[in-house]
User: What shape does this take?
Amino acid sequence: MAIIELLETSQIFLVIASFVLGLLVGSFLNVVIYRVPIMLQRDWKQQSCEFLEIEESTTEKKDSSGQDEVFNLHTPASHCPHCNHKIKPWENVPVISYLMLGGRCSNCRARISLRYPSIEFVSGLISALVAFTFGVTWLTLALLILAWSLLALTLIDFDHQLLPDDITIPLLWLGLLVNAVDLGFGVTLYDAVIGAIAGYLVLWTFYWIFKLVTGKEGMGYGDFKLLAALGAWMGWQSLLPIIILSSFVGAVFGVLMIVAMGRDRSIPMPFGPFLTGAGFIMLIWGPQISSFYINNVLG
Assistant: This one.
């Protein structure tokens, strides 16, 4: 109780505690971002082989009994990909361990990707921002789950052009639940349900129009489900700002990648990271954006 009271009375303590919590969750998100796509690919491969009734050829590691080694979010334990050194608890402290180790494995001295502490740090920042904005409430806890999920989806889609149903679908249902029990987010269940339906149908419609006109697929079904989830959390009113903001930033980023870095324009670019970014911006600054739009555009 004393901790709860301290969180309620001291905003500085709330922000620091949320930042530390975000760092710890960020460490877990690194595991999710790396392993979930591999787990899905293995599952799809197994299902395909079973459907086609063919023997599965595999190069995956075997255990002592000749079976495929267990691979999930818990097993195997975190280890160096170069020398298989099992990472000790004190080597796995978010950000701090990376700095103490000089960004290298303690055993083989191979470089550790800067991406790992970066994700932990970003997770800490967005957690602190959510807590600072919404205070000590059950809503804040729910919104932290949303923010962490959006961060994981961003990196998974960036790496694999994949938005896993294992994350987007539960996120959609959780958004509906949060607004059904009315945690004070200001979104009615009606607006949330319409937001989920409209979020899916809007991008689904764009997808088919683009495909009929060009013969190409402009986005994946994961994008539909992600926007549906954002609509379930923030209501149908948030959809237009999210689409406009994500499209604008995506277009600018795409042009910069082509002009500045020589990216081949025929290579598809994931849209999910721009949707998640726009969704988080609306989560934190939605009222200000809506007020600006009403006063300066409609007014």
About this structure: The first helix runs from residue 2 to 9. The two ends are 48 Å apart (CA to CA). The chain has two domains: 1-56+69-135, 137-299.
